[in-house]
## 1
Amino acid sequence: MDSAFLTGGTGFVGASLARLLIAEGLKVKALARQGSDRRNLDGLDVEIVEGDLLDREAIERGVAGCRYVFHVAADYRIWVPNPDDMYRANVAGTELVLRAAAKAGAERIVHCSSVAAVKAPRGRARADETSEYASADEVVGHYKKSKYLADVLARRLARAEGLPVVVVNPAAPIGPRDIKPTPTGRIVTDFLNGRMPSYIDTGMNVVHVDDVARGHWLAAQKGRPGERYILGGENLTLKQVLDVLAEETGAAPPAFKTPYAIAYAFGAVDTALARLRGAEPRAPLDAIRMARRYMWFSSEKARRELGYAARPARRALKDAADWFVARGYARRPAEA
């Protein structure tokens, strides 16, 4: 039986990937921090390897004997009190995992990057894998910058050093098992809980988390080392996302649009106050700055080379809303 090692298996995308790999007949090992929330792996036949992304011994135990390695773990926060922690996890951790996997003889290593590492064009054009930042100085926010640096590193290790690394760039995953929830999932919970009476003029590419998981597996089977593949779904404005959620749940659609200048000012004040309180801001300034551009993308390369396909965004949004409501993260309006 082929085996696979998975970082991030307790998380949102990783848990969906773990289920898929088991269904494909693989023996799965997953890295998990000591004391971490492992509910997403309940009932699954997964061998836990305790450690974190900077624990070389744990990583080497995990990758040993595995045909496939999927590096999905990342510090996914828009705001972080100590950015150095994020760079250590997302950049140094990536290099440790990829090199250890290659040294152990993995046939294919799939690095989960993000569309955050792809330069979004101006206006409502769709970016593809060729859209590159000139340097990290162009990238807004520590999360996006750390993912960009890791993306560049992974492709360099493949092209310059021959590591069998394929990069995938998921868009905005939505769906079940978002236990944190992620910043994307929080859009759904905040809307259902009445915390988003307005919207700003921005756009995102919404994709079902299970389709992202399938894209990882396809990349392991068919992806070309050194290449990256955008795993997206539908390009929607934020207003369209909230309207779909309103139609699927019965919640009131957003009432008005907030001008960008007002959103920016609110984000600046909220972030400054959060730093004084030592708490996470509700509207991080980096998130507002990121929203200045439409994050719209094309998955044509993944469709053409990997056979990738994604279900409608409405299905992803409905599945996410149903999961959040069923587990008490939010209430439907009729239940409030």
## 2
Amino acid sequence: MRIIFCGTPEFAVPALTRLLSNPAFAVEAVVTQPDRPRGRGQTVSPSPVKEVALQAGVCIYQPETVKSDAAYDFFQRVAPEAVVIIAFGQIIPARLIAIPRLGWINLHASLLPKYRGAAPIAWAIANGESRTGLTTMQIDQGMDTGPILLQSEIEIGAHETAGQLARRMAESGASLVIQSLEKLGRGELSPRAQDGSQATYAPRLKKEDGRIDWAQPANQIYNRMRGFAPWPGAYSMFRGQLCHIWGQPRPTSAPAAGDAGHAGDTGGAPAGTLLVRAGTVHVICGQRSELELIEVQLEGRRRITASEFANGMHLAPGDRFGD
């Protein structure tokens, strides 16, 4: 089967690797975003997908926009039977969608129609889901609205971050892509329409999404910490400085050893208040819950333990996170 592969980030790499190593498929070209500034140093560098394609010696095409006539001519000239598209980063116009006989096969990191949009893994964790999944579909002109080919469920670990889950899902998704292409090629799949009335959305993450609302219960704050790792992370203000925070909900069933109080014994202090108890640091959250601080990083400084933070900042009664 002659294929064009469209993708950009690390999430798309396992599927491309599997396709390149499978003799049933001929990857005629890899289409990826132009080289961009990346990382802390903002050095212009190729996408993870391009790096794999370079090693494999595959034709690489990097259009600024696939809506151009040049891009249309490229896809027409290659004339693939199918296009696999995973986290490519551009909207595909209708005239390109019509080119491959088997369509454009997209791998989406949710059980569609749930979590349509750019950040399904992050929002599934942030919303406290215990299960999610993967969907292959044939794209159409809508946002993740195309007919479904195959789906598989995946359990979300209780302490798993978005980055960790994405790595697991990328590997599982590669197998689902292969299965979908094989069954499509043999005429064994009947794409089924999505039920739009069941749709939920997972919009692109913004930096502001990481700002902690301490009025929320600790478990909800923890879910957002996991869902927004590695970016934008979870942060708050402390003494006028932006502070990234890592922590976990504190069990409410019993006091800690050597601790006269326990979660819920907040003395009426407002949400965001810091408490130092028996060598640990806690933050009062909504519904009389507490978050135990694990690590903290003030802007421009290194990441340190909660106890180092407490000692270095000389925490005093009434100190709070928040604006």
## 3
Amino acid sequence: MSRIDFALWDAVGGYGGGNEPMADVYDRHIRLAQEIEAAGWHSYFVIEHQNSPLGRITAPTVFLTAVARATSRLRIGAMMWQLPFYHPLRLAQEVAMLDQLSRGRVEFGTGIGVHEHEFIRWGVDYYQRAAIAGEVLELVKRAWTQDEVTFEGKYFKFDEAIPQPKPFQQPHPPIWAAVHSDAAIEFAAKGNYHVSQNLDTDAVIARKFDLYRKVWREQNHPGPMPRIFLQRQVHVAETDEQAHAEARQYLVAREGGAVPVGGGPIEKTRIGWGSNARGMGRDSERPDDKARGETMRLARESYDYNLENGLAVVGSPQTVIRVLEASRKKIGYDIFCTNHKIGRMPADLVSNSIRLFSKHVVPAFK
């Protein structure tokens, strides 16, 4: 088998939890990070959302500091920190502190966010999010590599700021771009950033990662090519039949999709999902986003569509190993990130899936 590094994407809180104290939820997920470290996983990721039922990581750096102090080798990060919501120098300092406290284990995942309602509720211009994020990222890099930062942009202005501390990793932690559109893929390649994807079909992602590699080579960047990260929903059981029986009802459901949009508690609020039912405002009608919306619709309606297009990997450990080896050759990733918490799947099924993946799949690709 070719080498693949494995990451776990942890939907902390998610649709579950009920009346369970969040302190207990956080502790349980910190123990999960310890378990996957012992099993030889490469990294552990969460995602930031604001005003959302999709998780309870509204301050990724705070939670990841707790994870860092409970582990010693596991790399940690958010995929992604939502850059438009941050004061850039405070973000730079917080992530640098996390990198120091973890002794250089941070993976800095960046993105602009996709859900319009999150921006409306915080009074941030959704349609300026890419431009705001561009300034934030530029300032974070300056704060990590310069003794002082003087900057005058459209959204931020600093006069001889002196950000501290600097990161443990030099010159800075790996920077990831969580991307979907061709324009974002090209931005990541030109910036020499590592790149991640999760929502498109295998065929579409293979084309986009080929575009990334092409544009990256055209830039004549020094050093090795950045890493390529693919996230998928995964369910493993002792046999193929058992795995499919367990996964089917949770995968083919509104909340079972990779990005469940529409319905739920958000729909019942005054603002709802924003100005478009697909949750992305006017951007919902852009060709690439519209195509991705159709992919998500089909995934909610057809179990076989998920499997045939790589959106989910379901089966026994042996089947999962075969599927991953084939998809790695087709797509060309070197980090595979698993999401085992599919919609409202019960905790015991999720735990068994992670246990089997750790025991059988992770060692097969060392």
